[in-house]
Amino acid sequence: MVDFSIEPGALNSSLAAPALPTGQPVDYKITARNVSVFYGEKQALFSVGIDIPDRSVMAFIGPSGCGKSTFLRCFNRMNDTIASARVKGEILVQGKNIYGPDVDPVQVRARVGMVFQKPNPFPKTIFENVAYGPRIHGLAKSKGDLEEIVVKSLQRAGLFNEVKDRLDGEGTGLSGGQQQRLCIARAIAVSPEVILMDEPCSALDPIATAKIEELIDELRENYCIVIVTHNMQQAARVSQRTAFFHLGYLVEEDTTDQIFMNPKDKRTQDYITGRFG
Amino acid sequence: MSLSALLFCLLLAAMVAFVIGFWRAKRLSPDNPRAVHSRPGYHGGYLALWTALPAILVLLVWSAVEPRFIQAEVESNLPAQVLEGSEGQIGLAMGVVRSVATGLERLTPAEVAAAKASPKEAQRLFESKGVVIATPPNAVVIASAEELNNIRHLSRLAKTAVAAFLAIFGFIFAFRKLSPNLRARNRVEQVVILALMAASSVAIMTTVGIVLSVLFESVEFFKHVSIIDFLTGTIWDPRFASAGDAGGQGQFGLLPLMWGTLYISIVALVVAVPIGLLAAIYMSEYAHPKVRATVKPALEMLAGIPTIVYGFFAVVTVGPFLNFVGSEIGLVIQPTSVLTAGIVMGIMIIPFVSSLSDDIISAIPNALREGSYGLGATQSETIKRVVLPAALPGIVGAILLAASRAIGETMIVVLAAGIAANLTLNPAESVTTITVKIVSQLTGDLEFNTPQTLVAFALGFTLFILTLGLNVYALYIVRKYREQYE
Ligand SMILES: Nc1ncnc2c1ncn2[C@@H]1O[C@H](COP(=O)(O)OP(=O)(O)O)[C@@H](O)[C@H]1O
Ligand SMILES: [Mg+2]
């Protein structure tokens, strides 16, 4: 199943991942092989492969339009909602190919949660925002169950103390940073295995950003997190591994320290030293 | 020259002035066009406006007030015994004078002489030229008519002279102002803005005018019938008082009409809201963009069908069909009934519901849908639990707009609702509506001085308040909802 064909410029990650303790079998949550994405005729992603370990943060960096979001959206089959998009290759989540013929994308998305660039709470109350997922998946047997899930999720998202007196206030009435944490709570509430974040802080001020980064660091203990970010310092702060994309190719993937201190590829070097992008 | 010829000449002059201004501006600074404040086109426009606009404005005002002055002048010279008569008699005399004046214009000098000599001959001559006059015009009338013609002629000459003067003076004035520093663009745009303001105020002034005229006539009606009786009366029986019949003026109870109007509108909404809403959901959420691009205009075409055609459809097809269905299942459904009118009207307002709701649903940000999909919701769950609740206020606004259309609708109910002012709950019976009664009270050759005709204005005013209120409320809701997503 492992594919050793190396695209021009793409470094096969399984060959260059010495960071984790050797000797033990590595617990990869997500394994992608030969993933290519097309929007109509245009290819946006070229045969990308990557392994993402559980209980850690993987950061995707790279210049705008290089395919980070496109790749991220493959992990929960979000690209299926775009009529022109086609995905080739295979992606295993917990060993199961989510692009397999018998897989319902809706079920994939319950296991792989997503937080978007712009906070997008539903125009409902804070409680209803968080309760939305559990309700449609029937996760709560009783009203008490539901309340417990909501409170726990809000607590985990670090939002509970700020909103506990106004759970029935509108979610859209919160500040930008609070809205984003509400979206994280909403995602956590369906107990996903993976949380995808597409530039979750790009619409937030520095203080709100710091809170989210702190939260990501805590969530890492229980989830596999993949985050797209434009902010190199952020990648360095929150992630354990980093993947650098360029023009639809995965150029280099390694431990975050390695990528930032000692990048192997010239393009990675140029990017992190700010020479382009 | 006649007014239209004058206006035409002024337009020509304006075009010439534009070309001259354009040409002149190009030469103001041939080496460095940027040194000229405004582009040549604005200089041309500036010159054209100064040439034509003052003259046109003066001409229009002149033509508007001219008839009064001329009339007053000619009237004051009418024989004393005519002037002593009533206003109507004076008006009648002036009418004859005006006709004779028109006739005189068409006669040769020889014929004019003949006409002056004999009133009978004059009448015959005028008739041969296509001007029919009831009584043979005597010398006094012909003299008045000649005076009228003379004044008109003079006025026309003076108009031409003034227009020519204004055009030439305006042109020279503006031409001397053309310079690199002239703010021609600003001046021209000021005029354009004024024109835009005038255009928008026409619509507003018209609305105000209509409201006021209907209001005054309604007040007139309430002098005959108390407003309380009108608003709370349950019997509609406006007997047309025939001559000599002093037996009261009938009863003008609004309630049966109001009930009929609302009942039919409710049936219409019951038909239109589900169909329109489901169509909107299909178009905005499920249909391929290509399908939507054809289905939406096709639905909107329903709104373009003249309502009288819907009326035919109701009378010829839906009414008999319902009647037949009713007899099959043992119900008596009158051919003109609440059901017939309501169903057809519902079909008519489907596009109002569907098209507006479609716009509103499409305006829901995609981020909300993605947020829901990202949590593992299916498309139908997303629509039911996120998209529709978010769009609800806007959809309510759309429905209210459709309701106001239904309430004000006339032709369908005239043909399909019936004319009996019943207060009934049975949808198989016929009722009547406010609009139907307005039509029937005003049909025929009537004078607006009896309560039987004046009531139409009171009804119209009621209808206006009703639909205006609905519209304002609906627009308020739609706007408030828009703000949420901007
Ligand atoms: N919905 C879409 N339809 C067509 N092309 C798209 C779409 N989304 C992204 N693309 C194209 O795919 C490429 C990668 O986009 P994206 O993954 O959004 O880049 P990134 O997130 O790294 O900035 C870009 O060239 C972009 O124009
Ligand atoms: Mg992106």
Summarize the structure.
Helix content of chain A is 32%, strand content 24%. By secondary structure, chain A is α/β, with parallel strands linked by helices. Chain B is 77% helix and 1% strand.
Which helices and strands appear, and what pairs or packs with what?
The complex is a heterodimer of chains A (277) and B (486).
Chain A (H helix, E strand, L loop, with lengths): L27 E12 L2 E12 L3 E5 L6 H5 L12 E9 L2 E2 L7 H7 E4 L10 H12 L5 H14 L3 H4 L12 H13 L5 E5 L7 H14 L4 E5 L3 H7 L2 E6 L2 E7 H6 L4 H7 L5
Helix pairs in contact in A: 3-4, 3-6, 4-6, 6-7
Chain B lengths: L2 H26 L11 H37 L3 H4 L3 H19 L3 H9 L1 H10 L10 H39 L6 H41 L2 H6 L3 E2 L13 E2 L2 H32 L2 H16 L2 H22 L9 H25 L3 H8 L5 H30 L2 H6 L17 H9 L8 H34 L2
The structure holds adenosine-5'-diphosphate (ADP) and magnesium ion.
Organism (chain A): Rhodomicrobium udaipurense
GO molecular function (chain A): ATP binding; ATP hydrolysis activity; phosphate transmembrane transporter activity
Protein name (chain A): Phosphate ABC transporter ATP-binding protein
Which features characterize this protein?
heterodimer, A: 277 residues, alpha/beta, Rossmann fold, six-stranded mixed beta sheet, four-stranded antiparallel beta sheet, 10 helices, 10 strands, disordered N terminus, B: 486 residues, mainly alpha, MetI-like fold, 3 domains, two-stranded antiparallel sheet, 2 strands, flat, binds adenosine-5'-diphosphate, binds magnesium ion, ABC_transporter-like_ATP-bd (chain A), transport (chain A), phosphate transmembrane transporter activity (chain A)
